[in-house]
Design brief:
By secondary structure, the protein is an alpha+beta fold. The chain folds into two domains: about 70 residues, Arc Repressor Mutant, subunit A (Orthogonal Bundle), CATH 1.10.10.10; about 35 residues. The chain is about 55% helix and about 15% strand. The chain contains six helices and three strands. It has a three-stranded antiparallel beta sheet. A hairpin with a 2-residue loop joins β2 and β3. The chain is elongated.
Length: about 120
């Protein structure tokens, strides 16, 4: 699944908020957006069709009810999935080496990653 720029803006709002949001919530929380307010329902329906979000329930706004939405995956899960959905898939070991060479990698992060690797090995 690959998302458009506008769809990513919607997903960022969901990921940053952490709760179920309605159409009105998206309009309130999307200060820097590349889409028009009238397009939010099209974007939400597209994300539903792609499986990036799901309906979480309904909420009342004034005299009407509207659907609320939740992401079906975390930001990290989305980016991990997009790396391998392209025709030109990277080598897993080469990708990990490139990520480890990033300046953002600290000793604390390496320790946390080692714990994740140990856990994965135990569960194989």
């Amino acid at each position: 699944m690959e998302l458009t720029k506008s769809e990513m803006e919607i997903m960022d709002v969901l990921w940053n908020d952490g709760g179920a949001l309605s159409r009105a919530d998206f309009l309130e929380r999307s200060a820097e957006k590349s889409w028009k307010d009238s397009s939010v329902h099209i974007l939400l329906n597209g994300l539903l069709a792609k499986g990036a979000i799901c309906e979480a329930g309904f909420v009342r706004h004034n005299k009407t009810y509207g659907r609320t939405f939740l992401p079906t995956m975390t930001r990290e899960e989305y980016f991990a999935a997009t790396v391998f959905c392209h025709r030109h898939k990277p080598d897993m070991l080469g990708l990990m080496k490139a990520l480890l060479n990033r300046p953002e990698v600290t000793a604390e992060l390496l320790t946390a990653m080692e714990a994740q690797i140990r856990e994965k090995k135990e569960n194989l």
